[in-house]
Amino acid sequence: MIKHRPLFKYIKNHDALFTELAIIRNGYVKSLGLVDSTYHKIPKFVANDGSRLTIEPERSIVVENFRTFKGVKDILGHEISGFYIINNSDIGFRYPTAAIAGLDAPFIKRFRSEYFHQDNEERNICRPINLSYGIKSRGKADNRQEYEIWVPDEALEHDTSPLFIDKYGEDLPEDIRQFATEPAVVHGWMGVKRAAFEGIYINKRNIGDLAIVVGLSVDAYNIGANPDLSFSNQVGSSIAVHNAELEWEIMGYYAPQGVHIEHDQIWQAINYTIEAVSQPIQDVYVNSIIPCNESKTERILSTIQGLGVTERQILDWNLKPSEFLQTSTPDRKKAHDPSRSVNLLGRLNRLFYQENHKLPSLNYIHELIAAPSPKGSRG
User: Where in 320-379 does DSSP place strands (E)?
Assistant: First the structure.
C-alpha cells in the first residue's frame, strides 16, 4: 500500500502539490537513466501560416461505470511497451464544469471550479475555489485548441475576454478572441471526481531521445438533467447521466540538456506518443467503450438537449456561473413556492452527493485504479 500521495498531503495547497509532483517526476526520470535530461512544457504549435496555437493533445474513452477502470495502472504498465507509471504521482480533484456555449457555437466555452471542504464543514457541502474559464475547439479531434484563464472571484461577473487577451496576446486567433467576448449563459452542469497520475513514454527508435510525460485521469461524473439542476420528471431525478472517462494527455517532455529539438520533431513525438497509448487502451476496453465523439462539455449540451430543454428556455433562465457559487440566490424563486429562494450552490452539490447517484471519494477511486488488474481485463 502506498504510504504517501501528494494529493492527500496537500489537498488544499496547489502550489505545494504541484511542486512536490514535479520533484517526484524529476526523481523518477533520473531513476530511468535520464540523468542529463530537463523538463519542458508543450510548445505552442506553429501552423503553416505562421500562427501560434495553444494545442491540447489528448484522447479519452467513455464507459458506463468507473469500476470498469479497476486496476488500470497495472494494465497500462503491461500493455504499453516503453510506458512507465510514475510512483506516487497521484493527484485528484472534485469539480463542477459548466457548459456556457450552445451546440451551435463554433467553439466550446466552459467554466470550472475546484471544490474543497471548509474546516469542520459537513461533507455534503463544498466551496468553490480556483475558478477557471476555458475555450476550446469542439469534439475529440486531433490536437484541439484550448485556452484557459484563472478568474479572480471579483471578476467572474464581468467580461472575461480581457483576461484571455492579456494572457495569450497575439497568439489568440481572431475567431477565438471574438468568441471570448460573448456573454456567459449556463447551458448545463457536470460534477466530476477525478483520480489522476502521470507516466513517462520512452521509445528511442521512433521519438529519439525525448521522454514524453503523459497525464492520465479516471473521471466519475454526473450530468444534471436541467441547466438549473432542478428535478426532471422525464428521468425522475435532477441527474440525467452518470458515466466515467479515462483520459490521457501530453503534459510536457524531457530532452537532453543543452540540445535544441526542432518544433516539428517535438510534435511528431507528441503525436506518436498519443497513438502509442491510445491503441492498447482501445484494445483492452473495446467491449466497454460507449461510442462518443463529444468532449465532456459537449456531453452536457447533448444531454440537456436530449431531455427536451430548448435554447429559448436556456436564454429565459439566463443562468450565470457566478450564481452557482453563492449560498443564496435571492432573485430566483422556486416555481412551486415563490416565497422560497433557489440555492443553486446547494443544487450543484447534489451532483456529487445525491443519494441515488453518489460519486465515490477521491481516495476510493485512487485505490480502485491502483488495485491489481482483474483477470480477463481485456474488454
Answer: 333-334, 337-341
Is pLDDT above 80 for 1?
no
pTM: 0.92
- What is the chain's Cα-based Rg? 21
Cβ neighbours of residue 226 closer than 8 Å, sequence gap 6 or more = 188, 232, 238, 304, 307, 309
Contacts of 260 (CB under 8 A, 6+ apart): none
Measure CA of the first residue to CA of the last residue in the chain; give whole Å: 27
Q: Does 227 reside within a domain?
A: yes
Whether 376 is in a domain gets the answer: no
Indicate the burial class of 332 (C-beta count within 10 angstroms; 0-12, 13-18, 19 or more): middle
The number of helices, as runs of H, and strands, as runs of E, in the chain is 11, 15
In this prediction, residue 340 carries a pLDDT of 84
The answer to whether 248 and 280 are in contact (CB under 8 A) is no
Domain that holds residue 159: 6-370
CATH of the domain at 100: 2.40.320.10
Mean model confidence pLDDT for the chain: 90
Query: Residue 335 above 80 pLDDT?
Result: no
Q: How far is CA 238 from the centre of its chain?
A: 22
Identify the CA nearest to 188 among candidates 293, 106, 109: 109
**352: its cell numbers:** 456529487
Residues 283, 286, 288: CA angle, nearest 5 degrees: 140
328 belongs to a structural domain:
yes
In a domain, 377, yes or no: no
The count of structural domains within the chain is 1
Q: What's the average model confidence in pLDDT over 29-48? A: 94
User: Looking at per-residue confidence, does 378 or 60 come out higher?
Assistant: 60
Instruction: For 302-323, write each residue's pLDDT tens digit.
Output: 999 999 999 999 999 999 998 8
Residue 190 burial (C-beta neighbours within 10 Å; 0-12, 13-18, 19+): buried
The closest alpha carbon to 315, from 133, 185, 151, 216, belongs to 185
Distances (CA, A) of 351 to 196, 315, 322, 323: 20, 22, 17, 16
